[in-house]
Amino acid sequence: MATMTFQRATWCLQISRTSRTFALSFTTALPRRSKPGSLPSRSRAFPDPPIPRASRHNQARSAFTSTKVYQAQQAQQPSAAPNATIQDLSKGLDDEPLVLDEGTTKVDWSRSFHGLSTQPFSKEAADILLQAIPPSDVEVKPDGIIYLPEIKYRRLLNKAFGPGAWGLAPRGETIVTAKAVTREYALVVLGRLVSVARGEQDYFSPEGIPTAAEGCKSNALMRCCKDLGVASELWDPVYIRKFMTEHVKEVFVEHQVTKKRKKMYLRKDGKVGYPYKEAKSFGVS
């Protein structure tokens, strides 16, 4: 058997160079000598024929074409927006207050003026509301406007009436414009309306609208407290000029990144913060 195999292989090698692959596959297909009592495996006796090079090329080109077609179909399909479930706050918050029925015993603070100017507050509460504001509590903005931080208005109301005895009731829905948020609020103290004011707050991107809505509420509280006489001196021109002279300084600052310079107002006990640094003047650094 081995001699016959060798003769066949020798005869096949004499064929032209293009037929050598066929000769090798022919000799490989011959059954090997197996042990007595055992049968040759089907995979060895009948191996899969080799795939011609042209067929492999056609299969690869077909797979490549199918991939390109799939990618083109995916690109044509409209993809879901990543923020599809996020509400567009620039169109408003849709938070109009709930309107109560006329027959209910509860007061609808979105429309009612219940208790307005019925009686004055106690002398103890009035003394707290009308007390002079310490100069150390007053802050100044970079443009020179003095103000009292909103948390100190809340502290004065808590001190005069107690926590839970006052609150802000919205009088309408939040209005969102291209650059600002505004809403009307009513200050309710001891179950009666005291003042109504509209707050406002600027914002720079839609993501800042919720924070601006909270600032709008604080701004409305500050305006309502004016009717109670809280920090009324901050609107007095005489007090403003005196405070600016005694507690405020003008400094020239330079932006550490853009190198632009401008004038800024600071408390005399304050310091210039990043990204600005103090400069002597516009001409001297």
Q: Report the principal-axis shape.
A: flat
Order of helices and strands: HHHHHEEHEEEEHHEEE
Q: Count of helical segments?
A: 8
Spatial extent as radius of gyration:
43 Å
Low-confidence stretches: 80-84
Q: How many strand segments?
A: 9
Percentage of helical residues?
Answer: 25-40%
Query: Which percent band covers the strand fraction?
Result: 15-25%
User: What class do helices, strands and sheet pairing give?
Assistant: alpha+beta
Termini distance? 103 Å
Average the pLDDT over all residues and give the rounded result: 79
* Largest sheet, strands/sense/barrel: 4 strands, antiparallel
Describe the structure.
By secondary structure, the chain is α+β, with helices and mostly antiparallel strands. The chain is built from 8 helices and 9 strands. The strands form 3 sheets. Strands 3, 4, 5 and 6 form a 4-stranded antiparallel β-sheet that branches. The chain has a 3-stranded antiparallel β-sheet with strand order 8-7-9. The protein has a two-stranded antiparallel sheet with strand order 1-2. A hairpin with a 5-residue loop joins strand 1 and strand 2 (about 145). Helix 1 runs antiparallel to helix 2 (about 20-30) and helix 5 packs antiparallel against helix 6.
Offer a quick outline of the entry.
With 285 residues, the protein is α+β, with helices and mostly antiparallel strands. The protein has helices at 2-13, 20-29, 42-45, 53-76, 123-129, 150-161, 209-226, 237-247; strands at residues 139-140, 146-147, 166-170, 175-176, 180-189, 192-202, 248-255, 261-267, 276-279. Helix content is 34%, strand content 18%.
